[in-house]
Amino acid sequence: MKKVSDYFGCKVFDDRVMKARLSSKVYQSLRKTIDEGAKLDISVANAVAAAMKDWAVENGATHYTHWFQPLTGVTAEKHDSFISPSPDGGVIMEFSGKELIKGEPDASSFPSGGLRATFEARGYTAWDPTSYAFIKGKSLCIPTAFCSYGGEALDKKTPLLRSMEALNRQAMRILHLFGNEDVKCVRTSVGPEQEYFLITEEMYEQRKDIRFTGRTLFGAKPPKGQEMDDHYFGVIKPRVAAYMDELNEELWKLGILAKTEHNEVAPAQHELAPIYTTTNIATDHNQLTMEIMQKVAAKHGLVCLLHEKPFAGVNGSGKHNNWSLATDKGVNLLSPGETPYENAQFLLFLCAVIKAVDDYQDLLRLSVATAGNDHRLGANEAPPAVVSIFLGDELNGVLEAIENDAPYAGTEKTQMKLGVNVLPKFNRDTTDRNRTSPFAFTGNKFEFRMLGSSNSIACANIMLNSAVAESLKIYADRLEKAEDFENALHEMIRKTIKDHKHIIFNGNGYDDTWIKEATEKRGLLNYRTTPDCMPHLLDEKNVRMLTSHKVFSEAELKSRCEIMLDNYCKTVLIEANTMIDMAKTEIAPAVSEYVLELAKTAAAKKAAESSISCNYETGLLKKLAILEDQIMIKAEELEDAVLKVQDITDITEESCMIRDSVLSKMGELRIACDSAETMTAKKFWPFPTYGDLLFSVR
Ligand code: ADP
Ligand code: MG
pLDDT (tens digit, 9 = 90+) per residue, 17-76? Predict the structure, then answer.
């Protein structure tokens, strides 16, 4: 048995390799760039590139690639080999500092939302030295940001790094006010819990819908689904265990801290969680994790489904974004402290998050909006589309006491008066009793639970970081000018609680009465679908906030809104076309064949003995004949709906029309086909059923 500690990170050009392979001068200089964002000298870049290349070649690499995350949501790479001709007719392996720092993929086909004119189609990639380079297959992968020549971000990484910087800037101001002079920077960290489904390759191959769209578009409810809850945390089946073993090994080699794995609620559903790390690295790692999950599955004759809703009527897959912020000294700013003074600082950061989530509910909602995730949010399995915060009883009690200047009846009775010195000391509450909240405080971090399983975590964290940076900026502006710091601090905390307590909800988020209360009494936003929320990216308050922190330019925001809506439209239209195709060329012919068989049987029975009953055949035949007609009618109506959309040029209008007409027609076609499935003999049905799919992996 190989020891994990022997091969962990063996494919990563990490700190251990840097230390061993770089001169101490080059190492120090690179560390300064990584830790403090210092500018990198070209001579240092050359030395780093040479060392990287030697290390990569020794480890079997022949190529290098700038690895980036365009707005498609997946990762992109273009491979160049290290070879360079030598005068004697052979080749040498070369890699310069320039090639390390900047790349120019001919990337004209990536979505840019109009940011790049085609005559200037080339974007460029720029090295992100804070995320380690790694080897994948035979290529050295260099994590990069992807920008246009005008400097506009064409990827998810660039605004993520900008949002981390914005948060760092504002958090540092606050920390200075609290006298933390030794802190050099504040970073956010994230641990994303990733859910997924496994089915066999054999089943996958037979379903066009899963192949083309990642989810089933048809399928009657199986006799057994998730009602027994017998899968959740159940014994992992041998084939799945073998898959998880290899997955862990591959992730560990890449330095990804895969930590826990278990079965989820739905049959065939599983979860993998890593140990948290700095947000941009966690983002890279999560993208890699999703890629490796699919690759390893293929080796085991399995297919890993990362879609948010692969099966109707069965829980979908999400991704919990556990988020906190910490200083370079390792102090978690969302961890209640030992002393009232530490707690004052904690409460201020807590309030900054509460205010941010309330003020920018719309941005958080739209950061997780995709056609796939629209099937989950609010469907009694994932948090609703309404954003709210869960704090737990203990913390809630503290906040209520502060708001009302009442004694805090927690662990010790403390009279709440003004000032830092009397902010209460309370115990850290680590219980996470509420699983239905979209945004839950879990002791020393927040868990944002609205993300879909296939989402890049970049978008959610960009919005979260920026919104919290904005709260902190408002606080710092006021506190820096305050004559009596403690008084001003206490008043600000109180005011935040008063103004924003409507976003705090500690009850059951799956309950319908909550949605009524949230929207009618509390005035919280409820954007059910992607077309509902996405246009709010361009609301004046949002543009102002995001541009003032230099996370996005206005042009970038416009382009992103357009790309996301375009993505929504394309996704649903591909689904619609796949449904039409399956209904017409697979389902209707199968039903028709069975109807013919029934007719033949009935006729044969009558011929054999005229008094014999053929009620079964004729009864069923009649029902199926009606359904056959329905299937064709509904398929044609869906075709019409799809055609109508093509005349619309405005993307927002198009997305609304798709939501209202195309999706509802898809639903109607599905109902007809699914009822036909329940009446058609199994051997006639053209593809595996839900029962086959969900219980295929043993
Ligand atoms: P669960 O949510 O299942 O109770 P945990 O609370 O142990 O599990 O952790 C879930 C995820 O949260 C893990 O990925 C873990 O690394 C991450 N996590 C723990 N502490 C922090 C933190 N301070 N910041 C960000 N993520 C964290
Ligand atoms: Mg969790």
Answer: 999 999 999 999 999 988 877 888 899 999 999 999 999 999 999 999 999 998 877 788
Q: Count the helix, strand and coil residues of the chain and give each as a percent rounded to the nearest 5.
A: 50, 15, 35
d(CA 502, CA 497): 9
Give the residue among 196, 171, 197 at the shortest CA–CA distance from 185. 171
- Whole-number Å distance, alpha carbon 132 to ligand 1 midpoint, is 22
pLDDT at 415: 44
- For the CA of 192, the closest atom of ligand 1 is 14
For the chain, the first-to-last Cα distance in angstroms comes to: 25
| Ligand 2 ion local residues (Cβ < 5 A) | 320
Which H or E element spans position 452? strand 446-452
Q: How far is the CA of 115 from the centre of ligand 1 (A)?
A: 37
CA gap 458, 290 in Å, rounded = 14
Say yes or no: CB of residue 190 within 6 Å of ligand 1.
yes
Q: With pLDDT > 90 as the criterion, what percentage of the chain qualifies?
A: 73
How much distance in Å is there from the Cα of 109 to the middle of ligand 1?
37
Protein residue with its CA nearest to atom 1 in ligand 1: 432
Measured from the Cα of 324, ligand 1's closest atom is: 24
Q: Which helix (H) or strand (E) holds 143?
A: strand 139-147
pLDDT digits (tens, 9 = 90+) for 219-233: 999 877 777 667 777
List pLDDT tens digits, range 121-155: 567 889 999 999 999 999 999 999 988 877 889 89
Q: Which ligand is nearest to the CA of 431?
A: 1
User: pTM of the prediction?
Assistant: 0.94
Phi, psi of 250 (to 5 degrees): -65, -40
Distance CA 376, CA 374 (A): 5
Among 240-244, 514-518, 694-698, which is the least confidently predicted range?
A: 694-698
621 lines ligand 1 (CB under 6 A): no
DSSP sequence for 118-133: GGG---EEEE-TTS--
What's the pLDDT score for residue 118? 46
Q: How far is the CA of 33 from the centre of ligand 2 (A)?
A: 33
Cα 273 from chain centroid?
Answer: 13
